[in-house]
Design brief:
Shape of chain B: extended
Oligomer: heterodimer
Order of helices and strands of chain A: HHHHHHHEEHEEHEEHEEEE
Number of domains of chain A: 2
CATH topology of the largest domain in chain A: Fumarate Reductase Cytochrome B subunit
CATH architecture of the largest domain in chain A: Up-down Bundle
Largest sheet of chain B: none
Structural class of chain A: alpha+beta
Helix content of chain A: 40-55%
Number of helices of chain B: 5
Shape of chain A: elongated
Order of helices and strands of chain B: HHHHH
Number of strands of chain A: 10
Number of strands of chain B: 0
Radius of gyration of chain B: 22 Å
Largest interface: A-B, 78 and 69 residues
Chain lengths: 379, 130
């Protein structure tokens, strides 16, 4: 089979590849940022700007959505190379085998090895790109038809595909740069316009799940955040988490404190209340701002007496699960907007939103805004 | 040449980081399942999806360009939203996940795509006549 249409062409491949490369680089960097926020390392993360994670994660997911049609178009453009490469390899191997049978040294052995290495290098590139886009799009739809934990697999595969992309760009630089010169003809321009239109449509019908002003356009987004507490989506319901709030509920502060403290819900409500407008920004790319009212975490910690550089673990009533606890570095717990919220948009917190109280802090992934908080453990 | 060697070294180091990471987190990312999905993507594309596109392109070879563009946009939009439209991630305890009528909305979006395509066809016809 020989595919020789005008679309299987370096001019088209170079244009699609450039945009796709920008998408993957953006997704890699924003993804790394999300990873660092979730797995605090040696670098302190600032709690400000409050909406930073909302923006970076929205960009991460939307560039992934945009990459889907671009990747399909790019693979289509270079598809003949797959067969041409296989054909050349087969010819070289048959020739080599003939040489070996005749007890000759195979001709062009170095070229065969180089060619094989070149073909093999395409595996991490295409395999990684398809894997990242398919698992990413499926994960934001809350569907997990695979045996691995998405976050870990998506994270490590990002290094593989980025590495392969760096090699690919270095390899293709010389052919791609002249191919980007203007003048591609109407057929190719039409194809690129159609692919661009599909990309635009996909982003337009998804972006409203995080860009609130265009929320009504989010016809095919997995989430539709709205106004009020009922409009704030949740990832894990109280039923799924097996939450039963005990009658003798107390919020306890203990660990490395001068005196352990405990407050009933009534006592928490009697403490000075503060309000902050902060987003819930989920790793799956949706986000929505809400008005949270409750007690400042720093007030509770100072009432118990803590060191200024202490780290605080926020424990939930949840018995299990990867996100039953989260950590607050000093930059977070000292921030005046970091609250144990008792109310959302004026109403008492619903149990799915973390009743009796939940953590809400600026610039923080939603999975770390621990719900159903029972303990602040100072370490 | 030096820049290229540096790029190769950086690329190989990144690939190695990913591979070692995958193996070191084996309990979480199930390397065999991962490999099946990784290789499965290539096989599904190169041996199933791409040949189907070749066949479709051949079947549509006499269709006007604007209509083919409409078909291409529709197929890409369906492909990109399939996990949402299938809505297999719905959970009975959490109505905030996948809350919309996605089948109907997909029809609306495709209708808009075909309205635009129709307008493009009419405009081209008029332009070619004059």
């Amino acid at each position: 089979m020989r595919l020789t249409g005008p679309l299987h062409n370096a001019k088209v491949a170079a244009r699609l590849g450039t945009v796709l490369g920008v998408c993957f680089a953006t997704a890699f960097l924003t993804g790394l940022f999300s990873h660092v926020l979730q797995h605090p390392g040696p670098f302190p993360i600032p709690a400000r700007p409050a909406g930073l994670y909302r923006v970076t994660e929205g960009v991460h997911v939307l560039t992934g959505v945009a990459a889907a049609p671009l990747l399909l178009a790019k693979l289509w453009t270079v598809y003949p190379k797959f067969w041409a490469g296989l054909r050349e390899l087969r010819e070289r191997f048959t020739a080599g085998l003939t040489d070996l049978r005749a007890r000759r040294r195979p001709a062009g052995l170095r070229d065969t090895v180089a060619l094989s290495a070149g073909r093999l290098a395409v595996i991490p590139l295409t395999g990684g790109a398809i894997f990242q886009v398919v698992t990413g799009l499926t994960n934001i739809a809350y569907w997990y038809p695979w045996p691995f934990f998405f976050t870990t697999a998506h994270y490590w595969t990002a290094y593989i595909v980025t590495g392969a992309l760096v090699i690919h760009v270095a390899e293709q630089w010389r052919t791609a740069r002249p191919a980007l010169a203007p003048g591609i003809g109407p057929t190719r321009r039409g194809f690129l316009t159609a692919v661009g239109a599909a990309t635009g449509v996909l982003v337009a019908v998804t972006a409203g799940e995080t860009v609130t002003p265009v929320r009504n356009l989010a016809l095919l987004a997995p989430r539709r955040p709205g106004r009020g507490q009922a409009g704030v989506p949740v990832n894990r319901s109280a039923a799924a988490a097996g939450i039963e709030v005990p009658a003798a509920y107390r919020l306890r502060v203990h660990g490395a404190v001068r005196r352990e403290r405990a407050w009933t819900l009534e006592e928490l409500r009697a403490l000075p209340q503060h309000t902050a407008v902060l987003p819930i920004a989920c790793v799956e790319g949706w986000s929505v701002s809400a008005r949270w009212t409750g007690v400042r975490v720093r007030d509770l910690l100072r009432a118990a007496g803590v060191e200024a550089d202490a780290t605080v673990r926020v424990d939930s009533l949840e018995r299990g699960g990867r996100y039953r606890a989260s950590e607050l570095a000093p930059a977070y717990w000292t921030d005046p907007a970091t609250l144990l919220a008792l109310r959302c948009d004026g109403e008492v917190l619903r149990v799915d939103h973390g009743y009796p109280c939940r953590l809400i802090a600026p610039n923080r992934p939603g999975v770390l805004q621990t719900k159903w908080v029972s303990d602040l453990v100072v370490t | 040449m030096t820049a290229r060697r540096v790029a190769y070294a950086v690329g190989c180091a990144l690939i190695l980081t990913g591979a070692v990471g995958l193996l070191s987190d084996a309990a979480d990312d199930h390397p065999i399942g991962w490999a099946l999905w990784f290789g499965g993507g290539i096989v599904a594309h190169d041996l199933v999806i791409a040949p189907l596109v070749v066949a479709a392109g051949w079947a549509l070879r006499r269709v006007p360009g604007a209509v083919r563009a409409g078909i291409l946009v529709s197929v890409l939009v369906v492909a990109g939203t399939l996990p949402v439209v299938l809505a297999l991630g719905r959970k009975p305890d959490n109505p905030s996940i996948l809350p919309l009528p996605y089948g109907r909305n997909l029809v609306l979006v495709l209708a808009a795509v075909w309205l635009a395509t129709g307008a493009l066809v009419l405009w081209r016809r008029r332009r070619d006549r004059s």
